Amino acid sequence: MVQKYQSPVRVYKYPFELVMAAYEKRFPTCPEIPVFLGSEILHESRSEDGAIHVIERSCKLNVDAPRLLKKIAGVEYVFFIQKNTVNWRERTLRIEAHNETFANRVVVRETCSYSVHPENEEWTCFEQSASLDIKSFFGFESTVEKIAMKQYTSNIKRGKEVIEHYLKELISQGITFIPRWSPPAAKEERAPAVGRVPGDILLDSGAAGTSREPAASPCPPPEAASPDADKLDADYIERYLGQLTPMQESCLIRLRQWLQETHKGKIPKDEHILRFLRARDFNIDKAREMLCQSLAWRKQYQVDFILQSWRPPALLEEYYTGGWHYQDKDGRPLYILRLGQMDTKGLVKALGEESLLRHVLSINEEGQKRCEENTNIFGRPITSWTCLVDLEGLNMRHLWRPGVKALLRIIEVVEDNYPETLGRLLIVRAPRVFPVLWTLVSPFINENTRQKFLIYSGNNYQGSGGLVDYVDKDVIPDFLGGDCMCTVSEGGLVPKSLYQTEDELENPDHIRLWTETIYHSASVLRGAPHEILVEILEGESVITWDFDILKGDVVFSLFHSKRAPEPSHKEATSPSPSAAGDNVQLIDKSWVLGVDYSRVESPLVCREGESIQGSHVTRWPGFYILQWRMHGPPPCSSSSLPRVDDVLASLQGSSHKCKLIYYYEVLASKDFRGSMSSLESCNSGFSQLSGVTTSSSQSQSSSHLSR
């Protein structure tokens, strides 16, 4: 594999001619670069007017490699051919180098250039690129590649230090100004005090110079500006992106160049590109693949405009317990999430996962914006934020399986599109149930992200080693014992009257981020039940369900059949053509109960406003049918009168269809045992219903239903 390197633009705040005088001091030997043992001029030429000066040298290098490897290779030193072309008219120097030793086994090519800064002609820019291709090396290809890359990168920044060393040496000798090149004819007309052309000075670096003017310009370019719109300046990287190794800088520049050449849309900001590189440990191919998928996702769902287009519903602002709150001690924006106080179940059922995901994306977009603002405010790179999660109030209701599933889907989207944005996660007041939630969620979180988690149980977050190590005392929220008033919502229970179906949640102004939702909606009409088919290929599986009755009363049943029914949509009895579009019937009218299919769970009457959760452990393979039918009074004989409740329910629902939202899932028996608690919500304070368990006398498997 060919290894490549591309440097950022490094700027010397000195004129080109003075930098060239410092550069020539490196030859024929340079004590400041121990690996460089010496050089010999092979060829030298000039143009007639002296504007172009070409020097070709053979350079001798001492490679820091194991003695055994040198012995196997049969060499003590390696030689490179370097060709320097100075153009005094254009004020440029181009350096081309390649290896002479082992040229048939290893190909090393390097290109460097010095040029005038485009915004300040008294400054000089330097760029460097190189490639390494090891074709074969006595079976030590990988070792040689590591040695070569290590030695090359260690000498990259040293090269700039050496130039600056010789610049200071020149200045100490009184040489602070060297006149620019001019054509011979023009030079003869000038006063003889001007002296020799720059080329002569470079051939005799000991020549005296004159002090005419300061080396640096009094009007530097803006600090944030790169020397070229398409290039990155080393000082800009350090100021706005942080300390990077030479190879990390190279990866950033190469990926950025690739995007400029191939990407037709908006080029992401440098800090955004850098996050993807960090997420893939600076493997440029993996980072490029991840970034391209994210850019396509952003374009498809118009995420770049989410801060302008997304307006959180009033319900979300009232019940979502999260918000921004100043910054931590490192200057990172601080986001507070009171997860233990949040009715996650109510939010999902009232708003849907789509709205929650959009809200989370807007939080991430806002976080990136705040990082940029803090970078300017504090004068140092800030590329991530801190999240403080308060778990006071977290209990088994938060381990509700559909909610955990929605959380995992959101985590997946954020991990794929906002990598390395979380600088630190502080979890405080973690209860005993937290390890269960962590076991469910942690496998879906990147290892680099998991290492940023700090977890405090009880009151361990107080005092030394706690929050005060990461957040200033005057910023700690009042609900955690601090003095700072926090405006984050305290949450509460979402009224069930606000729960909505899929159709009601649909927003025509937004492109759907998720094509499938966790909860589905259904209509139940008199004589037209809604039925769901679940195929079980082997026994000992677990069918789980969770549904809410939004309107009317229904009867829930579970059946088993050895043969697959054919679905049909009820249309004949629907009030309008589209009224029963979400109603599916599976059990054919010709089927006989006890012959073609059998009941495996006793019927359960579910009243309007109730939340039902349950499960059934299957005993036989085949087809299981979940059925919801409209509840009506049982047929009564002449000797018995119908109950008042049944008569009222019949009158109330006789002219209306029933509505419900439901979720179901099939788990292997072993998986269900580990997540049983996530399905038992009869103890949930959010249900506010008495716990009721109904077991089927006809089923040989364990099953439960809970309200």
From TrEMBL:
Domain PRELI/MSF1: 3-175
Domain called GOLD: residue spans: 515-666
Name of the protein this chain belongs to: SEC14 like lipid binding 5
Annotated GO CC locations: cytoplasm
Record InterPro entries: CRAL-TRIO_dom, CRAL-TRIO_dom_sf, CRAL/TRIO_N_dom, CRAL/TRIO_N_dom_sf, GOLD_dom, GOLD_dom_sf, PRELI/MSF1_dom, SEC14/CRAL-TRIO_domain
Entries under CDD domains matching the protein: SEC14 (cd00170)
UniProt region (Disordered), positions on chain: 205-228
Gene3D superfamilies reported for this sequence: CRAL-TRIO lipid binding domain, GOLD domain
Family matches, as Pfam families: CRAL_TRIO (PF00650), CRAL_TRIO_N (PF03765), PRELI (PF04707)
Organism: Cyanistes caeruleus (Eurasian blue tit)
Residues of the CRAL-TRIO domain: 312-488
